[in-house]
Specification:
The chain is α+β, with helices and mostly antiparallel strands. It has two domains: 40 residues, no CATH class; 130 residues, TonB (TolA/TonB C-terminal domain). 27% of the residues lie in helices and 25% in strands. It is built from six helices and ten strands. The strands form three sheets. Strands 1, 2, 5, 6 and 10 form a five-stranded mixed β-sheet that branches. Strands 3-8-9 form a three-stranded antiparallel β-sheet, with no helix packed on it. The protein starts with a helix and ends with a strand.
């Protein structure tokens, strides 16, 4: 018996060409695939969370002083309006056809362990860095004030994935100012059974003016 025959007799997992058979590699790969499937948790955002499960955080109050402008005396001549020419132009303009298509959500519903809530193992979102938005000068000059409620989609890393207006203050300038500030905020993410998960919260911001 030569050395090659002795080596094959003592190592049954090695083929006559000196390579491991496919069965041996399959036995190594299957456990690794099983472990990787357990580590993956799908994340989802607003469409996946029912309205009853969206938490409302503490209100953020923004105060500012009213800026009174000095009256201006502006004398402009009244414009000349030729109604007949305008009507002829409007008669030749066709009405545009608007086809509004509502986008369908593509996010899948997040799978949470419901036993975490029953055993008080669900930890809500906690703000970490929430710099208050500035009160716009134009809003203080015009006397604009009100409350805007933002809806934030917070990732499992605590960053704001998206921010939308859930309830408007009635003034787009105040709404936009609140949105721009909220996109820079960071949070301690919610936890489900000790594991960080994505979540959706509402945050009210109150703009108040002082005399």
């Amino acid at each position: 018996m030569n050395k090659t025959q002795m080596h094959q007799a003592t190592c049954p997992f090695i083929s006559k060409h000196g390579a491991y058979p496919r069965v041996f590699y399959a036995l190594l790969i299957i456990p690794l695939l099983s472990l990787s499937s357990l580590c993956w948790v799908p994340q989802a955002f607003p469409e996946a969370f029912p309205e009853s499960e969206i938490e409302t955080l503490d209100i953020i109050e923004i105060t500012g002083s009213i800026i009174k402008q000095a009256p201006r005396n502006l004398n402009f001549p009244p414009p000349e309006i030729h109604t007949s020419a305008h009507l002829k132009i409007l008669e030749h303009l066709a009405r545009p056809e608007l086809n509004l298509i509502k986008p369908t959500p593509t996010h899948s519903r997040i799978l949470l362990d419901q036993t975490a809530k029953t055993r008080n193992l669900h930890t809500p979102v906690q703000p970490l860095k929430t710099d208050h938005p500035l009160y716009p000068r134009r809003a203080r000059e015009q006397g604009w004030h009100g409350r805007v409620i933002l809806r934030l989609n917070i990732s499992d890393h605590g960053t704001v994935e998206s921010a939308t207006i859930h309830q408007s203050s009635g003034y787009q300038l105040l709404d936009d100012n609140a949105i721009n500030a909220a996109t820079q905020w960071t949070f301690q993410p919610a936890k489900n059974g000790g594991f960080p998960v994505a979540s959706t919260v509402n945050i009210p911001i109150q703009f108040d003016l002082r005399q």
